[in-house]
Each structure stands twice: as structure tokens, then as C-alpha cells.
Amino acid sequence: MSHDPQSETKQNLIALRDRIDTIDEQIGELISERARCAQEVAEVKKAAGEPQVTFYRPEREAQVLRRAMERNKGPLNDEEMARLFREIMSACLALEEPIKVAFLGPEGTFTQQAAIKHFGHSAVTRPMSAIDEVFREVEAGAVNYGVVPVENSSEGVVTHTLDNFIGSNLKICGEVELRIHHHLMISDVTHKDAITRIYSHSQSLAQCRKWLDAHYPKAERVAVNSNAEAAKRIKGEWNAAAIAGRMAAELYGLNMLHEKIEDEPDNSTRFLIIGTERVPASGTDKTSIVVSVKNSPGALHDLLAPFQKHKVDLTRVETRPSRTGAWNYVFFIDFKGHTDDVPVQTALAEVAERVADLKVLGSYPKGVL
């Protein structure tokens, strides 16, 4: 009997595809079962007569994602596994009521990308034209949460976001770190050999300066309000290109001429999730505070000493001039831990005695993905 390698290969493929079909069926049944459990959780909460039923729990979601990554044995990497779980949770949550999220728009920006990364594609995202509008939408209850940029690894802090926290009662409920990749894109009408103008946000132009100097030294660089606006602008200009993210290219039907043109390969931006409720401890948390101090010798040392004394690990200290006095300063401080932790409570009590004012902006799960 002759051996037929082609026939054997075909039989092996059929067997593997049958296995995949069986697994797909099991996955579908388990996702449906999980969705039914999520519905039962909602019913239990409603039956308990909670005055304002909260379906989304940031600390719970962070714990689920961390466990998914800890259990993962490959071949998918941890981040990909967590991303799949995020989408399952997003879809299950939307059965009750989709989460409404305001973000710094327009559509196609990195902030929208951060919102989807954190809340999943089943969330309803709403673009706002300014950071203070995002704060207002959340304060008014028009949306459940807001997403605002706070810090870029190469360009530094987003001061407008910090300034909004000073006058707001909103709390930080979470954080998202997004690896930022910039792409040079063109429209169908662009003559790619005749590009004389490049649109983008001023920060993006700065983050791609060396690449632009090397490849398009004579092209005019035009700063606009957002990368998404840059992507929209080039639709009718035959001699223009835009620098933006992949999401903008997909949204506005553009072709990516050059990918990943950022000067720093590890360029990333940190975004904050803002909401109205206090978030319980998740096990791996961060806290953000803002303190006002008088400009006196040793003021910064006095402010930071209690954190060192009680072994609270600071991750960021940012200074802003205070609006209330010419020689007073406001410090934004991030550190590891939750306000429920005793060392954090002790350190904050000592800090409060040394400063003019202390405000806890929120304790929240450390970014998972």
C-alpha cells in the first residue's frame, strides 16, 4: 500500500479543524454562561436596593485581568490574553447598560484609543473638544467616566489636565499607559513624491522631529489641534501628509506611507480615568494627591520626608505655580499604595500637618495592560 503524504496532510488538517470547531463551540457556551452570571450579579445588586447600582468596578476588573495574565501559559502573550478578557467583560457589562466615556477628541485620537483599551469596544465613547469639557461631562453625569492625557514619556506632563484637578471634585479611578506609534499617512489624492506640507499635533511633530529632518527637511510642518484633525485635513490636499496613529488612518481611510516614525521607540503616554466614586483597593494600587505649600526654605524636603519615613514609594512629583499666590506652589504627587493602607494613612496625616492644603485625587488600580 503506497504512502500518500498529501492525503495524510489533508486528514491531519481536517482533524485539527474539527478540534478547533469543538473548542470554538465550548468557548461560545462559556462566554454565554459568563454573560448570564454577570446579569445575575446585576439582579442581586438591584434586589439589594442599592440607591445607585454600580455595575462597573475598576478594582474588580483589574483583579480579573491580572489573574488572566497570571494563569496564562501561552502561546498568546499576557497582554493579548488580558485584552481578550477585557473585551469579554466589556460585552458582558454592556448587557446591563453600556458605559459612557468622554474623551479628548476628535475621533481617532490616542485618547480614544486609550479609552477603548481600558473599557473595551462595547463602551460608548464621546469626543470632547477640550480637557475641561471632559471634566464637565463627568461632573454633570452625562457620562460615567472621562479619559484625559496626563503625561508623555518624551514631552512631559500635560499641565492642562493637572490644572483641572485643582478645581474639581472628580476622582481618579484608573490609569492607562499607551505605547505611542506615529505613522506618516497620505490620502488617495496625495502625490507622494510632491509632499510639501505635513500636518500633525505640535507634540507629535516634536516627537518625530529627527525623522522629519532626515526624510522631509523642506516640507512645511503645520501644527493643528489634534492628529485626527491632521488626518481629516489631507483628504483634499494633493501635496500634504499627516502624522497620526493607526486608528486615525482606519477612521479616515488613509494609506500609511511610513510606519513608526517616532524618534523614541519607547514613547508612551499615560492617561487617567476620571469618575465620581472612590475605588476600593485592588491589591496593586497607586494614589495621586495634590498639596499646596508656601515657598519657604526646606518646604519640599518637609513635604517628602514622611513618605520616606513610612516607606511609601513615590513614582512622580510635579510642581505647578499656585493660582492663589505669587510665591506659593502646588505639588502633584503619585505613589504606590492605597489610602486604605496604614503606612499611606500615616504618611498623609504627617504631610497634612506640614502643608497649607492636601487633597487626595484618588486611589486606583495600577495600569494592568
Can you give a write-up of this model?
This protein is of the alpha/beta class. It folds into four domains: 22-90, Up-down Bundle (Chorismate Mutase Domain, subunit A); 98-178 and 269-275, D-Maltodextrin-Binding Protein, domain 2; 183-258, D-Maltodextrin-Binding Protein, domain 2; 285-365, 2-Layer Sandwich (Alpha-Beta Plaits). It is built from twelve helices and 15 strands. Helix 4 links the parallel strand 1 (100-104) and strand 2. The longest helix has 43 residues, at 5-47. It is globular and about 85 Å long. The model has no long low-confidence stretch (mean pLDDT 91).
Task: Give a concise summary.
This is Bifunctional chorismate mutase/prephenate dehydratase. Pathway: Amino-acid biosynthesis; L-phenylalanine biosynthesis; phenylpyruvate from prephenate: step 1/1; Metabolic intermediate biosynthesis; prephenate biosynthesis; prephenate from chorismate: step 1/1. The protein contains twelve helices and 15 strands.
